[in-house]
Amino acid sequence: MKTVDHFNFENKKALIRVDFNVPLDDQLQVTDTTRIEAAKPTILKILEDGGAAILMSHLGRPKAQEDEFSMRHICSKVSEIIGVEVTYVANCIGDEAIQAAQNLGMGQILLLENLRYHDEEKKGDVAFAKALSELGDIYVNDAFGTAHRAHASTTIIAQFFPENKCFGNLLSKEIESLDRVLNNSEKPVLAILGGAKVSSKITVIENILDKVDAMIIGGGMAYTFIKAQGGSIGDSICEDDKMPLALEILKKAEEKNVTIHLPIDVLAADDFSETANTKVVAINDIPDGWQGLDAGPGSVQVFDAVVQQSKTILWNGPLGVFELAPFSGATIALGNSIAQATKNEAFSLVGGGDSVAAVKQFGFDSKVSYVSTGGGAMLEMLEGKTLPGIAAILD
Q: What's the whole-number average pLDDT of the chain?
């Protein structure tokens, strides 16, 4: 696996695909700088070698070339985080971009305009990819969040750099961390899957049953499993059409000697709101008019014991509606459990939008081994798929 560490960038212009698809507020100010910070080590390595960095990314989902999606809004924030003045150019291809790239001195950074201002980006257009490739000497992909898309800048472009292409620090770390969980893990291996729907995690569950020793299934999707086993779940979220599948998963797990842990109790509410009445009840005995919105204290205890016995831990999805304060308890408790296990030398990987949001919100991001930056990309890797953006570099 070729990374930036395999290259000396002296007098070279590195064309780097970063993932600067960051959230902006009404004043078009960046509200979360995680993705920019994640790209910093790769950019600095190139500059310290005596090279220059040309950054390309998409921002949002522009339909035309709406100004709110212009990369110029994030340029000053990128400068601030990297610690080097960043120049912005109002296109990513064409004469203006070529001129800006040619004028770029070593040790300098250029930020190209939003790739998705051109429809050809998402279409994986070869001519567009070739036009981008003419801006740099070495292609670096450091955008894990878009590695599952066969877009021009993430995949197609690599063919124009047959010998001069590599992974950035962030993307190589993502690959290594996921590989450590899926293929080179220290046992026992535990997967914790939460979130609302079984349907969105079916292929993940099926793929990792061969790789784990235990699995905790929490969040909204637990109720489909409980109801399938004959439990009463009141008004809790449930995918009735997925109940046969839930039973099939339990059967497969048993055949493969994988222990599945479902919540035993829940914090139920009589309304989906912070001001609802709540009570702790057995998960298979939730009264009508009530819905489970968080795992209960008994479940938290059981899950903690499972986590402490594990040497490799994958966490994807919260245990409850953590966005509402009264129903964040089990997710916070799980974060504490994983932090403790990590301290005791377990390897812990957290990924997927909601669980990443939870670990950041509750301050666990520095207490686990690795927090993945790509939701969809990580899920596809967990499903056993080869990501086009990764394959293009390895090719």
A: 95
The answer to whether the beta carbons of residues 237 and 248 sit under 8 Å apart is: no
Tokens representing 307 are 């986590």
CA end-to-end span of the chain, whole Å? Answer: 10
User: What does residue 189 show for φ and ψ, rounded to 5 degrees?
Assistant: -105, 130
User: Is 35 assigned a catalytic role?
Assistant: yes
Q: Which of 35, 45, 173, 242 is catalytic?
A: 35
Cα 20 to Cα 82: distance, rounded to the nearest angstrom = 13
| Sheet hosting strand 86-88, strand order edge to edge | 86-88, 109-111, 52-56, 13-17, 138-141, 165-167
Question: Which of 79-88, 142-151, 266-275, 349-358 is predicted with the least confidence, judged by mean pLDDT?
Answer: 349-358
376 is catalytic: yes
Q: Which two tokens stand for residue 341?
A: 């296990």
Q: Pick the catalytic residue: 60, 107, 353, 384?
A: 353
Active-site choice (197, 311, 360, 367): 197
pLDDT in tens, 73-117: 999 999 999 999 999 999 999 999 999 999 999 999 999 999 999
Does 353 participate in catalysis according to the annotation? yes
Rounded to whole angstroms, the Cα distance separating 334 from 331 reads: 5
Question: Is the pTM higher than 0.90?
Answer: no
% of the chain beyond a pLDDT of 90? 88
Q: Catalytic: 149?
A: no
Alpha-carbon gap, residue 224 to 235, rounded angstroms: 12
